[in-house]
Write a structure and sequence with these properties.
With about 425 residues, this protein is an alpha/beta fold. The chain has helices spanning about 20-30, 40-50, 70-80, 95-100, 115-125, 150-165, 180-190, 215-220, 235-250, 275-280, 285-290, 310-320, 330-335, 340-355, 365-400, 405-410, 415-425; strands at about 10-15, 35-40, 55-60, 85-90, 105-110, 170, 195-200, 225-230, 250-255, 255-260, 265-270, 295, 325, 360. Helix content is about 45%, strand content about 15%. The strands form four sheets. It has a five-stranded parallel sheet with strand order 2-1-3-4-5, sandwiched between helices. The protein has a five-stranded parallel sheet with strand order 7-8-11-6-12, sandwiched between helices. Strands 9-10 form a two-stranded antiparallel sheet. It starts with 10 loop residues before the first strand and ends in a 9-residue tail after the last helix.
Length: about 425
C-alpha cells in the first residue's frame, strides 16, 4: 500500500518515547511513501513541528514530561487544521476517546496493524491540504503570498480547506496586511479559478447618487467567479439590505421584485471589528452572521516578522533584480520596525531605499530615515482616518436620535460632558439635526 497522490511524499511527525516503536512506525510510513520525522518527547516534537510544518502528527498518549494530551493542546493552539492521531494502549482507550472529543483526528491502539495505520493516515491526509510554497504546481494558488511563518502557514491551510466550498468568506485584518491577496489566493485554489474576480470598494459607494445598484452591475461581471467586497463595513445601508438575500438565498432585489442571482461566491474584507459596527448601528447583525460563516484573520506584519527577509528579497527582485540589496544592519532595522502600514509599508520602504541608495548594498542610515518618514505618514493617515470615522459616527448618531444629545451620549456610552466635547472638537451643532 502506498500513499495516494494527495499525500505522496507528505511529511509526518511521529512522537514516541519508545525507540523500538518509533523505528517500526517510521519504517511502515516510509514504505507507504511518506516522509517521516521522529521525536522522542513532546518538547522535541514541538521544535520539529515548528521547523518542518508536517501535514500530520502521530503521537503516543503516555510519555514522560509532556504527554500526548499536553502536546495536542499546544499543537492545536498553533495549528488547529493539522490532524493529530493518538497511539494508545488498550488500558487508555477511554482517554483516547475523550481526546477525539477535544479535536484529535483519531486514535490507534497498540500493538497497531500496519494496514490500519496507513488507512488512518490516508484518511487524515485527505483533509490536510498541501500548502508548501515549494510544492510544485500545487503551490500555484498561493504564489503571490510570500511567507514561511507558522502563523501564515496555518492561515493558508485554513484558506486551502475552504477554497473549494461556495460559502461566503470574511477576511479581517489591518490595512496593508494583504487581505485581497488572500482572497485572490482562495479564488485561485477553487473550482472558480479562471472565472472573473470582481472587486467593489465599498468606501467609494457612500457618495453615489441614487440609481442602479453597483452590486447589480457587479453580479453580471462576476458571473461564475468571485465578488470581493473590500471594506464591507463601509457598505451603505441600502446596499447591505440588497446584499443579505444574495448571501442567504442567492437572490437579489431588482426593483420591484427579487430575481435569481448568477452563480458567484461572495468574499468580503474588513479592517474593523464588525461587532462594534453592529452595536453602533452601522452594520446589520443578520448580514454579519450570514457573511461570516467562514472567518479568516490576516495577521499584521508585526506578528510574522520572520517573513520580512523573504518579503524584502521578493521586492528587491521585482524592483532591481539580484544586483541590488540591503546591508545586514539595514535588514535588521526592517525586522525591528513597528510597521503600522504592514506589508504595503514594507514594500514602499524597500522600493524607496533601492531608488535612493548610491551603493549596491543600501545602508542602515537610509533605511532608518525612510522608516521614520513612512511611519510618520502612516500615523498621520491613521489619525486622519480615525478623525473622519469619529465625525461620521457622530453625525449618524445625531441624525438617528434627532439631535437628542442625552440619547446620543447614552448610545455612545459617554456622559453628556464628554459627548459635548466630542461635538465641539468636530464643530458639530446638534441643533441642526432636531
Amino acid at each position: 500500500m502506498t500513499a495516494d497522490s494527495a499525500g505522496a511524499g507528505a511529511r509526518i511527525l511521529v512522537v514516541d518515547d519508545d525507540p523500538g516503536l518509533l523505528d517500526l512506525i517510521e519504517m511502515r510510513l516510509m514504505a507507504g511513501g511518506y516522509a517521516v520525522s521522529c521525536a522522542a518527547s513532546g518538547e522535541e516534537a514541538l521544535e520539529r513541528f515548528r521547523a518542518e510544518r508536517p501535514r500530520l502528527v502521530i503521537s503516543d498518549l503516555r510519555m514522560d514530561g509532556m504527554d500526548g494530551h499536553a502536546l495536542f493542546a499546544r499543537l492545536h493552539a498553533e495549528a488547529p487544521t493539522v490532524p493529530v492521531i493518538i497511539l494508545t494502549a488498550h488500558g487508555t482507550i477511554p482517554d483516547a476517546v475523550a481526546a477525539t472529543q477535544r479535536g484529535v483526528f483519531g486514535f490507534l491502539t497498540k500493538p497497531f496493524d500496519g494496514r490500519e495505520l496507513l488507512a488512518k493516515v490516508a484518511e487524515a491526509m485527505a483533509i490536510s491540504p498541501k500548502v508548501d510554497a515549494s510544492a510544485g504546481e500545487d503551490a500555484g494558488w498561493r504564489a503571490s503570498i510570500v511567507s514561511s511563518s507558522m502563523v501564515m502557514e496555518e492561515l493558508l491551510r485554513q484558506a486551502r480547506r475552504v477554497a473549494d466550498a461556495d460559502d461566503p468568506v470574511l477576511i479581517s485584518g489591518q490595512r496593508g496586511s494583504g487581505k485581497e491577496l488572500l482572497a485572490r489566493a482562495i479564488h485561485a485554489a477553487s473550482r472558480r479559478a479562471g472565472k472573473p474576480f470582481v472587486v467593489i470598494r465599498c468606501a467609494e459607494l457612500a457618495d453615489l447618487k441614487p440609481g442602479a445598484s453597483p452590486l447589480a452591475r457587479a453580479l453580471t461581471a462576476a458571473r461564475g467567479g468571485v465578488l470581493l467586497l473590500d471594506d464591507i463595513e463601509e457598505l451603505p445601508p441600502v446596499e447591505q439590505a440588497r446584499l443579505l438575500p444574495l448571501v442567504r438565498e442567492h437572490t437579489f432585489f431588482s426593483a420591484p421584485t427579487r430575481v435569481d442571482a448568477p452563480d458567484i461566491r461572495i468574499v468580503a474584507t474588513t479592517t474593523q471589528a464588525l461587532d462594534q459596527a453592529i452595536r453602533d448601528g452601522r452594520f446589520r447583525a443578520d448580514l454579519f452572521y450570514a457573511i461570516g460563516r467562514v472567518a479568516l484573520n490576516m495577521p499584521a506584519l508585526a506578528e510574522r516578522r520572520e517573513d520580512i527577509p523573504a518579503l524584502v528579497a521578493h521586492f528587491v527582485a521585482q524592483t532591481h533584480g539580484a544586483a541590488r540589496g540591503l546591508a545586514p544592519e539595514a535588514m535588521a532595522a526592517l525586522q525591528e520596525a513597528a510597521w503600522p502600514g504592514n506589508v504595503r509599508q514594507l514594500r514602499s520602504v524597500v522600493e524607496q531605499t533601492l531608488a535612493l541608495a548610491v551603493t549596491p548594498q543600501a545602508p542602515v542610515t537610509l533605511v532608518r530615515r525612510l522608516l521614520r518618514e513612512e511611519t510618520e505618514r502612516e500615523t498621520a493617515a491613521l489619525d486622519e482616518a480615525r478623525r473622519a470615522f469619529e465625525y461620521d459616527y457622530l453625525v449618524q448618531l445625531l441624525d438617528s436620535t434627532a439631535g437628542n444629545v442625552t440619547h446620543a451620549a447614552r448610545v455612545a456610552q459617554r456622559n453628556r460632558t464628554e459627548f459635548y466635547k466630542l461635538l465641539a472638537r468636530h464643530k458639530i451643532d446638534p441643533g441642526r439635526y432636531k
